[in-house]
Design brief:
Strand order of the largest sheet: 3-2-1-4-5-7-11
Number of helices: 17
Shape: globular
Structural class: alpha/beta
Largest sheet: 7 strands, parallel
Family: Belongs to the fatty acyl-CoA reductase family.
Mean pLDDT: 89
Protein name: Fatty acyl-CoA reductase
Distance between the termini: 41 Å
Order of helices and strands: HEHEHHHEHEHEEHHHEEHEEHEHEHHEHH
Function: Catalyzes the reduction of fatty acyl-CoA to fatty alcohols.
CATH superfamily of one domain: NAD(P)-binding Rossmann-like Domain
Oligomer: single chain
Helix content: 40-55%
CATH topology of one domain: Rossmann fold
EC number: 1.2.1.84
Number of strands: 13
Catalytic activity: a long-chain fatty acyl-CoA + 2 NADPH + 2 H(+) = a long-chain primary fatty alcohol + 2 NADP(+) + CoA
């Protein structure tokens, strides 16, 4: 089923989307409403106390965003409101609970009777998330979504959004293949037991509550436990570890339900749809670009030859729709798609740095007082050992001197040592979290995605239509995209907000 049929496929379909206020989910929802207003229903799951509060959140955080301005201009405000009220059903729910915690039995029954496609985009993406939260949403939340999909009598497919980085810190060409749980063993040879991980977390949480620990201490302990367990089993952080376990659970329990897993790489601003450069929040590589533009980034840990695998968000949404139309109702489907650029159109961190230098030299940002911020080349350090040495010589030794001055002259205003020490610790923490990605040596094989894309392009030729569902990374010119689309998009939609 190809491009022409994607639009046709969406007609009269009832689709459930979790995590509907997230960056990718709202691009996915906007695309469906724009290209196929005759979709039957969109059940959008958001965290809220009731359906009224859910609709309020959807309006404020989804439909009133700039993202919907093209649709608004195309059909007018009144028609857009009518479209929302006719097509969108807000569901106040939480995927970390059974049946999303939907208390209204009529709504639950209606959903289970009507839904054709279930799309799980809900996730917590904090690298060092609390272990209880990560397990609740990314691991067992995914299983709850699967169990709900299995109760939907008309369900033709579960499309689950994961991340390409479930591969951990492997190098070389990384295949699009599902996890086999029995293959997951740590260095000591122990097999990963997901239920044991859950029990361990609950036991630790109970101990912390029994000891009357503060909320702050509980959060810190839960974060440390997540990172500790992730590293023990060979993953760099809690986020990718809990996402991996989520994939394993749904792969193991899917039974006859067709399952498609989309593994995007680092998702960036829209390439073209609904308009170029729309983004929300600072994503992985963006915080580094912005810090550089603001003149605060003087050195950074990165291998200039490492490939930075980025993919525009509209391409991910297009791949999701195409994969859904292709596999819905298929028998024995358990497909994995890497949606990224490293295999077919790689760009290195060194190239991104050069492009950023050129951009901010030519178009500098302004500081709060209105003066232009001058940028200079960043000192790029390619190993953690050298970076730690640089930080010690450049900052930690002068900091010891500052501590001495604070002790000798306690009447000096402010705690300069404490403040600077906190900042340095924060930098080191950030660098440790980013290290697996900025020194990453893997390339994501995307032969499944390439084949999906080729079939869709073949159909385009037959129908003489423009590319409505393009997700071919070869078409991206990284210099043009970063300079004319992505960085201006960051400035307009993130910095100026």
């Amino acid at each position: 089923m190809m491009e022409f049929n994607c639009v046709q496929f969406l007609q009269n379909k009832t689709i459930l989307v979790t995590g509907a206020t997230g960056f990718l989910a709202k691009v996915f929802v906007e695309k469906i409403l724009r290209v196929q207003p005759n979709v039957k229903k969109l059940y959008l799951v958001v965290r809220a106390s009731d359906s009224e509060a859910a609709m309020k959140r959807l309006r404020a955080e989804v439909f009133e965003k700039d993202l919907f301005k093209v649709l608004r201009e195309n059909i007018g405000e009144e028609n857009l409101n009518t479209l929302f009220s006719e097509k969108v059903v807000p569901v106040a729910g939480d995927i970390s609970t059974d049946c999303f915690g939907v208390k209204d039995s009529n709504l639950r029954e209606r959903m289970q009777k009507e839904i054709d496609i279930v799309v799980n985009v809900a996730a917590t993406t904090n690298f060092d998330e609390r272990y209880d939260v990560g397990l609740g949403i990314n691991t067992f939340g995914a299983l709850n979504v699967l169990n709900f999909a299995k109760k939907c009598v008309k369900a033709q497919l579960l499309l689950h959004v994961s991340t390409a980085y479930v591969c951990g810190e492997k190098s070389g060409l990384l295949r699009e293949k599902p996890f086999a749980m029995e293959e997951i063993r740590n260095e000591a040879g122990h097999q990963l037991d997901i239920n044991f991980e859950m029990e361990l977390m609950k036991k630790r949480l109970k101990e912390l509550h029994d000891q009357d620990c503060s909320d702050e201490d509980i959060t810190l302990s839960m974060k440390e436990l997540g990172m500790e367990r992730a590293k023990l089993h060979g993953w760099p952080n809690t986020y990718v570890f809990t996402k991996s376990m989520g994939e394993m659970l749904i792969g193991n329990h899917r039974e006859s339900l067709p399952l498609v897993i989309i593994r995007p790489t680092m998702i960036t601003s829209t390439l073209s749809e609904p308009f170029p450069g729309w983004i929300e929040g600072l994503r992985t590589v963006d915080s580094v670009i912005v810090a550089y533009g603001k003149g605060v980034l003087k050195c950074f840990l990165v291998d200039v030859n490492s490939v930075c695998d980025m993919i525009p968000v509209d391409m991910v949404a297009n791949a999701m729709i195409t994969a859904t139309a292709t596999h819905a109702g298929g028998s024995g489907v358990h497909m994995v798609y890497h949606v990224g650029s490293s295999h077919q159109n790689p760009v290195t961190f060194g190239e991104i740095h050069e492009i950023s230098v050129r951009y901010f030299t030519k178009s500098p940002l302004r500081s709060r007082n209105g003066s232009l911020i001058a940028v200079s080349k960043v000192r790029l350090i390619s190993t953690m050992a050298l970076f730690s040495l640089y930080m010690t010589l450049r900052f930690k030794l002068p900091l010891q001197l500052l501590k001495l001055i604070d002790i000798i002259y306690p009447w000096r205003s402010g705690d300069k040592y404490g403040d600077k020490n906190r900042k340095i610790n924060m930098v080191m923490r950030l660098v440790e979290l980013y290290e697996p990605y900025v020194l990453f040596k893997g390339i994501f094989d995307d032969r499944n995605t390439k084949s999906l894309c080729a079939n869709q392009k073949e159909d385009e030729t037959k129908t003489s239509k423009g590319s409505m569902f393009d997700f071919d990374p070869k078409g991206i010119n990284w210099g043009d995209y970063l300079t004319s689309v992505h960085i201006p998009g960051l400035i307009t939609h993130v910095l100026k907000k």
